[in-house]
Design a protein that fits this description.
Blueprint lengths: L2 H17 L2 H6 L2 H4 L7 H12 L16 H17 L3 H17 L8 E4 L4 E2 L5 H14 L2 E6 L26 H19 L10 E5 L4 H10 L10 E5 L3 E2 L10 E2 L2 E5 L1 E2 L5 H9 L1 H7 L4 E5 L6 H15 L3 E8 L7 E7 L4 E6 L1 H10 L14 E13 H11 L5 E3 L17 E3 L14 E5 L2 H4 L7 H5 L10 H18 L3 E2 L3 E5 L2 E5 L2 E4 L7 H6 L6 E2 L4 E4 L3 E10 L1 E4 L3 E9 L3 E5 L9 H4 L3 E5 L3 E3 L3
Parallel strand pairs: 2-17, 3-4, 3-10, 4-5, 11-17, 18-22, 21-23, 22-24, 23-25, 24-26, 25-29
Antiparallel strand pairs: 1-12, 6-9, 7-8, 10-14, 11-14, 12-13, 15-16, 19-20, 27-28
Helix pairs in contact: 7-8, 7-12
This protein binds ligand UGB.
Ligand UGB binds next to strand 14.
Length: about 625
Amino acid sequence: MAVAAAAAVAEKLSELIFSGDDDGWAAAVPNLQKNLTVLSPEQIELAKMLLLEGQKHLFEHWPEPGVDDGKKKDFFEQVARLNSSYPGGLSSYIQNAKRLLADSKVGKNPYDGFTPSVPSGQVLTFGDADFIRLEEAGIKEARKSAFVLVAGGLGERLGYKGIKLALPIETTTGRCFMQHYVESILALQESSCRLAQDQHQSEIPLVIMTSDDTHTPTIKLLESNNYFGMKSTQVILLKQEKVACLDDNDATLALDPNDKYKIQTKPHGHGDVHALLYSSGLLNKWKQEGIKWVLFFQDTNGLLFKAIPASLGVSVTKGYHVNSLAVPRKAKEAIGGITKLTHTDGRSMVINVEYNQLDPLLRATGHADGDVNCETGFSPFPGNINQLILELEPYIEELNKTRGAISEFVNPKYKDSTKTAFKSSTRLECMMQDYPKSLSPSARVGFTVMDTWLGYAPVKNNPEDAAKVPKGNPYHSATSGEMAIYKANSIILKKAGVQIADPITDVFNGQEVEVWPRVTWNPKWALTFSDVKRKVNEACSVSQRSTLVINNSNVILDTLSLDGTLIANEVEVKLAGAVQNKGWVLQHVDHKDSSNPEEIRIRGFKIQKVEQLELNHV
Ligand code: UGB
């Protein structure tokens, strides 16, 4: 329909609706008018809102009353959910969609008028005096923090059938991401309360944002594992709702192709976490309980907690309202770049520019080569790893203004260059790292850059896509994620004085990786570099083919010379002298060989447990 004609219909409708003529407005859609008796007064109000927003097609196929009445009510239940879960309601969603779709059609650059430059932030050097001081400051403050895990994503890039939180972080112990996160938070809580001599043992809350795709399996994972040792009351699940799909540039809501009484929906993105936290009332409750920091993190970064103490220390010492954790970024790597944007009108902000927008932005502002590495071999823009530390009080102040609404974007796939039709329905999306976009220039927004080996090894890509990653760029696969754990632990032990053999290189699922000794430890053994140094005597060595598993807190590495596999489960033990056995061997596995479970196939190897020394509780 021509835009002018549609506008005229909308105007007529709005006249009728606001005149209070109850029969007149619905007469515009006879099939709806016939069904008004089936609907409750609240549902009739929602119907008016939909008509005002140009959505009369939703009712045009409705049959006579008495046919499919249950489905008609279900339709309005869905509309009510879509309406209440979006800040400002469904009408705001449709209006925002119309605006963003119009911008997208004319190719409006969201960064119009802004010039990018490289911001300055805190760079961590693992193990130096500053790092140790920051770790201590972070541990002290950790008992005043709350953790928020965004885990509503389907993991389409990984293609794994289950939830990513249930995947093993490494296959030596088989501990899953959820277990690792819970144990890390509990270890932080214990360590922080001990250091602060906190008598009443503060509990660090863990919020998990789920979605329809991940909610039930997440609960199942927690319940069937007794919450991995955390009190069930300490874990709070907030489920994000999906948003309505849009069929065209007029923001016509898309009906589900398989059910004409259902609006098609898709995920809105991790940015939903802010509105959910706001509406949950948790933030004010936390404030009353003395919580000062909120730490956001993603579902599959097995290294993150190694960087948490020092990064929180940076927030504390610098007084950052927003602290984005970052790593050196390879040009064109699929992680956003932390960028300073300065507008021609003088405004400026430090913000993540998403990976697909950084290159066009640079090209449009005089950088003819776009997103390229500089002389360091990395992009000059630090890579956003989407782990944010927010100071609670200013966060609450901001959300009181915005109700948690985050700036959105739309990414329609057009059928052709006229940009009049979409290949498939689209929807608005938002990202949690866009939170600083609405802050005033006086907000203290900073970032912390750490070595990638220390803080970032997500599991996002399936084997085929990982194998195609340009040489030198990280694979972000299950293979590289597991190898990164061994590498980080080996490097940390090495820096604490242990002789660690050099890694070898091997190829799994088409990805060349460094294979370090398979060293793993439970977070309660060591959270900081100082913890490791206290528990390690310099006269120790570990050969490349070795596996060392430390499962308890008071294990001391004392003159240990390991060439094989050693598993220390005892609470208190000194590991001393030579330990040699056949050990555990990495076996190659073809990712297409369905005789192995998916968790194994996606990494391209399995561990053959030939011989080990296991020290257990007596
Ligand atoms: N997630 C949700 O909880 N809900 C959703 O609707 C969607 C996701 P992806 P993405 O670290 O390499 C981000 O899909 O969005 C959760 C940053 O934007 O793995 O492609 C999901 O469960 C990017 O700047 O990542 O890219 C997961 O835990 C860069 O930092 C998390 O959100 C990139 O991550 C991230 O979702 C990166």
